[in-house]
Amino acid sequence: MANMYPPTTTLPVYSVLTAVAIVLTAVRFWTRIRYTKTNVGADDWFIFTGVVICCGCTAIQFYNALEGTGGQAVTDKDDAAQIVASKKADFVMVLIEKPAFGCIKLSLLFFYKRIFDTWNSFRKANMILIGVVIAWTIAFIVGDLAICGTKLHYVYLLDQSLARDHCGDKGFLLLMFAITSVMTDILVLGLPFFYIRRLQMPPQKKLATCLVFFLGFISTAAGMMRTIFLGISYPMGRMAWGYVSPPDQPTPLVLQVFNPTFWVMVEMFLGTWAANLPPLGPLLGAMGFREWVSSAYRKVSAISTSWSGTRTKTTEKSYATRAGDERNLTHQTSHSSLEAQDRPSADSWSWRDRW
């Protein structure tokens, strides 16, 4: 079967992903400095660092396409120079992707502090996640650097027998990183949804805010693709040191579809997009994004109300059900009153300033 990820396809995709990431980051800083006139903070510098590293990953893929195997598995047809170049590119890529992902996640967490830092429960959860992400990033960087002890050059030697004898299990390390990356994504991206509902905003604005944050899960989906590839290929021994794809053994279709190099690039850059979009909230609002969401919200609400009214006319309610509804209403009213005391008033801080 033909290669589904040739450089002629992947390099233009990487170029577009890189260009959009650079533009979004530039617009983010412009929005901070000129539009909302708020201070450039840790969240901005973390995403800036992450995008710079991602650009380095794009450069590595261009180098691999020109000098190496183009991100594909090594075969008997590749010459020695191509194999060594590919191994060097793969190792550097694996190494620097760790701080790239770490910076992207930390950018989101520090951005959350601008909006939700009013609540004590958020501050505790956010600080715990910041510590987890920092420790996670450092742990895997150290793991990559120490995988062959003091003989790091074994990683990219043409003869991989030394790596097999003296280095750790790189496939297991890659698989664990992919799994934990998805897990930390879910924790980081899911955190704000617990607090958006408590903000004193119209429902349609809450929906618009949720949509912006929800875009980050597209990056997580790409991470799941990579995890699927590693989860299948690792037990087959395809991640072992010195593995060469046998010419008479076709690569399983699922492994051709889920190319790890391609999906890690997509995951990284979609992560930078997702981290850049929330700070652009005020600018998106000025461009009519929230009005569009408000219109959609009103239409959905109208349909829901119409359906609910029709159902009420055709359904008999018992006395016990009415009594239960009254008790639930009393409980919800009491709960809403307590929650209103806990959340800040709309006049106590400016939503636009925090963004």
Can you tell me about this structure?
By secondary structure, the chain is mainly alpha-helical. The protein is built from 15 helices and no strands. α1 packs antiparallel against α2, α6 runs antiparallel to α9 and α9 runs antiparallel to α11. The chain starts with 6 loop residues before the first helix and ends with a helix. 30% of the residues are buried.
Low-confidence stretches: 296-305, 314-326, 328-353
Query: How far apart are the first and last residues' alpha carbons, in Å?
Result: 49 Å
β-sheet strand percentage: under 5%
Helix residue percentage: over 70%
* Whole-number tally of structural domains: 1
Q: Radius of gyration, rounded?
A: 25 Å
Based on the structure, what is the oligomeric state of the protein chains?
single chain
Mean pLDDT: 79
List SSEs in N-to-C order: HHHHHHHHHHHHHHH
Largest sheet: none
Principal-axis shape: elongated
Q: Please identify the top-level CATH class.
A: Mainly Alpha
- Secondary structural class: mainly alpha
Instruction: Report the count of strand segments.
Output: 0
CATH topology: Rhopdopsin 7-helix transmembrane proteins
CATH-level-2 architecture = Up-down Bundle
Query: How many helical elements?
Result: 15
Protein name: Rhodopsin domain-containing protein
Transmembrane segments: 12-33, 45-63, 99-116, 128-152, 172-195, 207-233
Biased composition (Basic and acidic residues): 340-355
Membrane topology: Multi-pass membrane protein
